[in-house]
Design a protein that fits this description.
The protein has one domain: MFS general substrate transporter like domains (Growth Hormone, Chain: A), CATH 1.20.1250.20. It has 17 helices and no strands. It is globular. About 60% of the residues are buried. The N terminus is likely disordered.
Length: about 425
């Protein structure tokens, strides 16, 4: 490990630095929105069901656009996709800010504009992943992806408390800042010097329908990727559900938005520490068993959140659950990025995102409905149980259980 070089972009790679910095701005805005959307939804409706519905819009947009986004990324200039998608995200949050400023914001408008912003992010994810593959040599991918994990946790560290503070000052402010974060991301992409064209295409282009499914077929053909994506789907469903349940429990208990944001701050500190350690852990720990341990530790830690509304205690439990995720995410991302051919990068990222996040739009809806029927303690325990069960696909697949360190991964395919 090289000290603080793991938590800042690789300075010797200027293009990666710009991609990293642009995504840092965008993720900061998105981490604010994760907190602010249910708060605003609850404020304008007084209903946990409506608050869950408002939050689901972003997730639905991302899900619906995920497969088409992968095809577009593999057929178009990755630079153009990143620019247009970030500008679309900026426009959607700009309209949200305007509606909030004029006191005309409704649950319906939040859902509609959330769908637009979620769709924009569905294009940003695979395009950014493919761009990193283009500008970073294969042997440096684990370092680059670990630094991306550090960026994510740094955004999670700053975003929620900033979002809570801005929301406390004025309801439109978090939306204004999120819109600006997309603009900054677009400007950063424009500074990348490395060509980011579409991959070389065959003389006869594959029809859209077949092309949409090609990334899914690639994932399904790999027992390791099938198991990893199944774990990710259940883990993400439970994680989003728990985030919404705990946020709404605290809102109902009268906890201030700024105080709620400190939970994510504490957890993000742990995640950032985990990101610093991630490269060493990825090199030394078998990726398969590391995923199992990460899932079970997270479930055990988050069980404690069911029995308190103290934000410091909840933050500490979240911190314990977050510590190992950067290493696991870096390992899984590094493995998938390394084995997938260049022409399928966009579709692989989109297909993986579809499978991993396909059920997450249900999480806010389930959280809002369940909280209306049972106690917060019971609702939280339900999410923890699902989080623990998420490791079953890993344990049930021999190829995944025995997946070793990066030095033991198969050579990249050229198919």
């Amino acid at each position: 490990m090289r000290g603080i070089s793991w938590v800042v972009p690789m300075r010797r790679n200027r293009d990666f630095m710009w991609l990293w910095s642009g995504q840092a701005a965008s993720e900061l805005g998105s981490s604010m929105s994760t907190l602010v959307f249910p708060l605003v939804g609850y404020a304008i409706s007084g209903s946990t069901r409506a608050a869950g519905l408002a939050t689901a819009g972003v997730l639905v947009g991302s899900l619906v656009a995920s497969l088409p986004a992968g095809v577009v990324v593999d057929r178009s200039s990755r630079r153009r996709v990143l620019l247009l998608a970030n500008l679309a995200g900026a426009a959607s949050f700009g309209v949200l800010a305007l509606l909030a400023l004029t006191d005309t914001l409704t649950i319906a408008s939040m859902v509609a504009l959330g769908v637009v912003s979620g769709a924009a992010e569905a294009f940003v994810g695979p395009a950014n992943g493919a761009a990193i593959r283009a500008v970073v040599p294969r042997e440096e991918l684990p370092e680059a992806l670990a630094q991306s994990q550090a960026r994510h946790h740094a955004a999670e560290l700053a975003g929620p408390p900033v979002g809570g503070a801005l929301y406390s000052l004025a309801r439109p402010l978090p939306f204004v800042v999120d819109a600006l974060s997309f603009v900054v991301a677009a400007l950063a992409v424009n500074r990348v010097r490395h060509p980011l064209p579409a991959p070389e295409q065959p003389a006869e282009r594959v029809p859209m329908g077949r092309s949409l499914l090609e990334g899914l077929r690639f994932l399904w053909a790999s027992p390791v990727m099938r198991a990893m994506m199944s774990w990710a789907a259940l883990n993400n469903l439970a994680s989003m559900y728990l985030t919404v349940v705990i946020t709404l429990r605290l809102v109902q208990a009268g906890v201030a938005p700024v105080a709620i944001g400190t939970i994510s701050t504490i957890a993000a500190v742990a995640g950032l520490a985990g990101a610093v350690l991630a490269p060493t852990i990825v090199r030394r720990a078998p990726t398969g068993w590391m995923t199992v341990v990460t899932g079970l530790v997270a479930a055990a830690a988050l069980l404690g959140t069911a029995f308190t509304t103290n934000v410091v205690l909840i933050g500490l439990w979240y911190g314990a659950s977050a510590l190992l995720f950067p290493a696991t995410n870096s390992g899984i991302s590094g493995y998938s990025t390394a084995i997938v051919p260049e022409r399928l990068q966009g579709r692989m990222f989109s297909a993986a995102g579809l499978v991993a996040n396909g059920a997450t739009p249900l999480a806010p809806l389930i959280a809002g409905l369940l909280l209306a029927e049972v106690s917060g303690t019971v609702a939280t325990i339900v999410g923890v149980v699902v989080l623990a069960l998420a490791v079953v696909p890993i344990l049930g697949t021999r190829e995944t259980r025995t997946l070793g360190r990066p030095s033991e991964w198969p050579v990249p395919t050229t198919a």
